[in-house]
Amino acid sequence: MKKIYPQLVFLLLIGPILYAQNTIKGKIIDSETKEPLAFASVVINGDNRQGVSSDIEGVFVYKSQSPISSISCTYMGYENFSASVLKNNSELLITMVRSKFDLNEVIIESGENPANAIMRKVIANKESNNPENINSFKYRCYNKLIYDYKSDSPDKKDSLLIRQKLKGSRLFMMESVTNRKFIKPDISEEVVIGTKVSGFQNPTFASLATDFQPFSFYKDNIRLFNINYLNPISKGSLKKYKFRIEDTLYQQKDTVYILSFRPQANKNFDGLKGFLYINTNKYAVQNVIASPFEKGKIDIRIQQQYAFVDNKYWFPQQLNYALIFNEFPSKTIGMIIDGKSYIDQVEVDIPLNKKEFSLEAIRMDPEAAKKDSLFWDNSRAEKLNSAEITTYKVIDSIGKKANFDGLLTFMEKFAQGRIPVGPIDIDLSKTFSYNKYEKLRLGTGFYTNEKLFKDLTLGGFFGYGMEDHDWKYGGEILYRISKENEMVVGAKYQQNLMETGNYGLNTYEPSLYNFRNYIGYQYDMIRQNNLNFSFRTMRYLKFKVDFNHTKTTPKYEYLLNDGNRNFRNYTTTDLTFHLRFAYKEKFVNSMNQRYSMGTKYPVFNLAYTKGIKDFIDSDFDYNRVEASVQQSFFTKNFGQTDYRLEAGFIDKPLPYGLLFTGEGSYDSKSAIIMKNTFQTLRPYEFLSDSYVNLFLSHNFGGLLFKTGKFQPGVTWHNNFGWGNLSDKSAHQLIAFKTKEKIFTETGLQIDNILKLNYMNIANLGLGFGVYYRYGAYSQPEFNDNLAFKFSMAMSIK
Fold it and tell me: N or C: which end of the chain has fewer CB within 10 A?
């Protein structure tokens, strides 16, 4: 009895209090769209200190020991709502009406803006509140993504017709459950443990609703659709943004300030507009609603909600985003993509081992698409409504009839530059081939795929040049030893054209999408046998070894005199080592492929070739080294900077085709800007056996000019090159120059001069660049130093 007595007294005392507790629940929605209003202010009994805010779904719960007699709600852009509460412990549906007036037109304030004082504290606490500055964490996340349509048709006939055809379902829907773990500063792994996609039996893409928007609202720049928007809580934002206190809420001992933000007038930067809910507990972001200030082809809205975990950190709790295509697929019927992510099971400051992290930042578990209904019932943060349940039934039926999984397989292959035809893949890079020597090459390439062999690939190509009237062909075999380590061994033979100077680092460039390949006109015909072995090690290091035996016939007038004899045709045997190191390069494993998402650190490439004389009739003994380092990075309020520094060295005289040339891309009939080439230099103008080149560019984007819809992007280019040729007299019957002095050119590229509407979802921007060649290798006539080239870019703005 002594042990029971204290507990009994406690229950007798607390019981009446619990019994007397009053609870009111509700959901706040837009009166027209029926969409939930996130973070609306709710005040109880007219007392500002008794209130809450709705969550990201518009839902609120308030508990009180005293009776609840009235409720009022406020939300920016909406008329205030007030009502009497007739019954406690009830659930309400509150509809709010949009205001007919814009209250944000003219605000006159005397003295310092009080909102700025709050924002200074937010910025000062930014780093400590950033969840990605926590030493380690892990969590589970449930993601749901819904595609639906919207209609602005006055009679709503379009909406009714579509809804009847879909039997009340959504256009498309997918769900996923992921487990993420993280170690400061940037070691992250997210595993899709469950995925469900309407219309697909075996979806191979990682359906991540969180992939569109940033994990937290603390980065200096918020990147949406390849546009870097300046974060209103970044340093220096007080000079760029206008802040205003819209409301104040009281949550127990903490105060929540609701601040609106938008770019200041006449400021040239990509900015956001929206609302920040700032909690005085550590002056952290509790909620945020944001969208681009300038309206584009696609309306974008992101919402984030944070919770205070372990009484230490503010951590994301729910992340929502919406993409609204107002005029796609037609002007009367638009489309909405609505994504929601619910984060739970959060653990912070836990022991994690870096060695246990996969190379991929995002990957899919092999069993992810096979989860049963029990798994989904236990994993969903919210139950599916009737329209969502119908979506799976209707779209799954359509998917089977239309073979959505077959279409997905096609897209997987197409992303690799191939088209699947049963157990064979057609290689597009071998099918569509053009250069100025052959003109159009008619032919194709083909490889076996996983339908025939899982890890073994057999393939070949053939083609006939319409200008040189010659056949090219080859075949190869590849065996994948390890998918995880990208370990592959192979062998191939080819009789093919090889552009002069196109050895070493340049062989990594994809031929289908590299415009520089289309203006080549100086080639060697090679008959080559090759053995190769490649693998990945130490996470970020990719290694490849090639053993080549090559017989070469120049397709141009040329002789090499090495002092002993003249060479026209020659044979080489060499061993080449390729190395690529990209520190902290991020990968996504999706659609059965490992895709690089890049890295903010420099990427280093190295190729070393050892020529072996007299081995299988080889004519030359030499050492050849090429190296490059390149990087792309964004600087707040300044723009995107790109550079590529490359160098090469050969220690012995070699034939023209094995030296360094071809770094120019000036062609009067192909006036297209080609990255990391000299824009005013003809393809084979200079010849070197040692060289150093630097390609430097800076893209200001729209930071310099913004006048209404005319917002051209400006990029400044500066390119420098040096080269040397040790034995000029050895190369006969061919014209060339050397560049022992510094070659210099500069250029100004202006994008988006003319914008063409692309399917009402983006603008195809047309622009041009003007480049000027100056210094030691400038031409006598001014006009001969100029190169005019065109550019194309896609943008939602």
Answer: N
